[in-house]
Design brief:
275 residues; alpha/beta; D-Maltodextrin-Binding Protein, domain 2; Alpha-Beta Plaits; 6-stranded mixed beta sheet; 5-stranded mixed beta sheet
Length: 275
C-alpha cells in the first residue's frame, strides 16, 4: 500500500473521505472499512499508514466507541481536521423533486435534516447503514422516486445528481476527525495535546488532577469520561488541552499529573484543526 493510504469507516464518498481529502490532499488513497474497529486494526496491522476516526460532532456529541478504541490500540494522534457537514440530496435519472417519495441515509443524517422532511411530509425517511452507502445502493438499483442524503463527494464518486444542497437544520454542524498512526509525530507548530488517565475514586482525586493545569494557566478544551471495563464505577478521563509537550509548563503539568494518577497516557501532540 502507498505511504499515503488512510483507512476510513464507510463507503467511498463518505464524509470521512471528504475529511481525508481536506487533510491530506486530493491524491490520498482511501481504504474503506465497514467498522470503526476495522480502521484501527488496519493501521495496527500495517495495511494502511493512517486511519481517520470521527471523535465528536457539534450536534450529535461524542463518538464513544472511538474513545474506547483509542485506549485499546497503541496508536498516536498526529493531526485533526474539522469538517463542516453539508447534507446534499442526491438522485439518479428518473428521480426529480416532483416525484420524490423516498430518501435513504444514515439515521443521524436523516435526523439532522428534519426541516426538509417537514416541508415534504409525503417523503418517506428510510434509515440506511451509511450515507455514501445509500448513494451507492441507488446507483446500482436506480429506484425511481428515491434519493439519498450524503456528502457532495458521494455524488462525484457514483455519478449522481445533487437535487438540493444544505438540507441540514443547523449550519454550525461540524465533525472533528483524528488522524492516527503507529508512530508519534509532533509537528513544529503543534498546539494541542490529547491525554487519557485514570485515578482512584476518592474525595478530591479528580480535582487534584485538573488543578495541575489550572496552576499553570493551561487551557482545557475538551473533557470526556469513559467507564473502565471490569471495574464498576471507575473511569478513564480524556483531556484535550492547548499546548505542546515540548513546552516546559506542559512537561511539568504532565509530570505532576503522573504523580496523582494510576495510569497516564499521552495520545498525541498535534496542530489543532481550523474551525
Amino acid at each position: 500500500m502507498p505511504q499515503t493510504t488512510i483507512a476510513i469507516q464507510g463507503e467511498r464518498g463518505s464524509f470521512s473521505e471528504e475529511a481525508a481529502t481536506r487533510l491530506m490532499g486530493p491524491n490520498v488513497r482511501v481504504l474503506p472499512k465497514e467498522t470503526f474497529p476495522a480502521i484501527f486494526q488496519s493501521v495496527a496491522e500495517r495495511e494502511s499508514r493512517y486511519c481517520l476516526a470521527p471523535i465528536e460532532n457539534t450536534l450529535a456529541g461524542s463518538i464513544y466507541e472511538n474513545y474506547d478504541l483509542l485506549l485499546e490500540h497503541d496508536l498516536h494522534i498526529v493531526a485533526e481536521v474539522n469538517l463542516r457537514i453539508v447534507h446534499n440530496l442526491i438522485a439518479f435519472p428518473g428521480t426529480t423533486m416532483e416525484n420524490l417519495r423516498q430518501v435513504y441515509s444514515h439515521p443521524v443524517a436523516l435526523a439532522q435534516c428534519s426541516r426538509f422532511f417537514k416541508r415534504h411530509p409525503k417523503v418517506e425517511k428510510i434509515p440506511f447503514y451509511d450515507t455514501a452507502g445509500s448513494v451507492k445502493m441507488l446507483a446500482e438499483r436506480k429506484i425511481p422516486g428515491a434519493a439519498a442524503i450524503a456528502s457532495h463527494i458521494a455524488a462525484l464518486v457514483y455519478d449522481g445528481k445533487i437535487l438540493q444542497k444544505h438540507l441540514e437544520d443547523h449550519q454550525e454542524n461540524y465533525t472533528r476527525f483524528l488522524q492516527l498512526a503507529r508512530t508519534s509525530s509532533i509537528p513544529s507548530d503543534a498546539n494541542k495535546v490529547s491525554i487519557a488517565f485514570s485515578t482512584r475514586n476518592a474525595p478530591g482525586a479528580l480535582f487534584r488532577c485538573l488543578s495541575v493545569f489550572a496552576l499553570r494557566d493551561i487551557d482545557l478544551t475538551k473533557m470526556e469520561s469513559r467507564p473502565v471495563r471490569g471495574r464498576p464505577w471507575e473511569y478513564f478521563f480524556y483531556l484535550d488541552f492547548a499546548g505542546n509537550v515540548r513546552d516546559k509548563k506542559c512537561q511539568k503539568a504532565l509530570d505532576h499529573l503522573a504523580e496523582v494518577t494510576d495510569i497516564l497516557r499521552v495520545l498525541g501532540c498535534y496542530k489543532a484543526g481550523k474551525k
